[in-house]
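Field: sequence (string)
Field: structure_tokens (string)

Example rows 1 and 2, in order.
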Amino acid sequence: MSDALSALRALRFEATIPEGLSASLLDWLLLEDSMTKRFEQYCSRVTVRIVREGFFDSPVDFPEAEMMPEAKRYWLREVVLCGDDEPWLLGRTVVPESTLEGPELALQQLGTTPLGRYLFSASSLTRDFIEIGRSAELWGRRSRLRLAGKPLVLTELFLPASPLYAEEK
């Protein structure tokens, strides 16, 4: 795994919404719509830097395991989402191989297209939950989404330059 994403993997998720969070912070962390679309309101251009993507065999102890059906292989995509070339978010998407059938095969061909641009154009997208997490002073979230009823898990860590923190100042 890439060291660039160690803070993302260090996220500790809360069982409930932490007390004392501002309305602005909650608005970001509990956003049901596309984070890409939200970021586009704060910059001229949202871009994706791929850190790693490809299949991995099912290890016993990866963080998303309890949220998905057991599979022999999973598609992993780890990226940095940037606003005007400034890193704003680390993202990790884990998809069971069984989800990658039919139109959902497109998840493997996203390249530098933001995941949100693909997911939120699908009429069959639903979200089971959003969990709020923290890694040191950084906030993150994790969601299980379903495309045509098939699951994937998206974990996001907001980097210091993210507009989420600018609104808190």
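Row 2 begins here:
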Amino acid sequence: MSQEAAVLFANEAFYLAFALKDIKGMDELWSRHLPVTCIHPGWQPLFGRDAVMDSWIGIFGNPASPAIECRQPRVVLYGDFAQVYCYEVIEEGTLIASNLFALDARGWKLLHHQASPVAEKPQFDEPAPQRTRLQ
């Protein structure tokens, strides 16, 4: 598997854990060896693994947390680091996200996630994936 494909696989695992509200899966995706940060839309920055994981526990425990779909992921590789830029489609609109990964002995692990609204909904090249909405 190419490095780009491996990063895209890790990014897809992130969105699958998000969609399934799988805290164990989400926990497994974040680095345990490097500092991690996260900026959820409208939130203050979160620094450190405990704060980041607490945020996901809160989001997953909220019955109103949105269904999410990752669209048009694009990878930029920097050796043992990689950035994925993608759109997040939720009921309320479309967000642009960046996910920073680092390669360690366990594979590509998240260091940073940030998402914010886009002013104009993008035109997607590919049709939306056919997935069952999870509640």
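free_text_note (row 2): The two ends are 33 Å apart (CA to CA).
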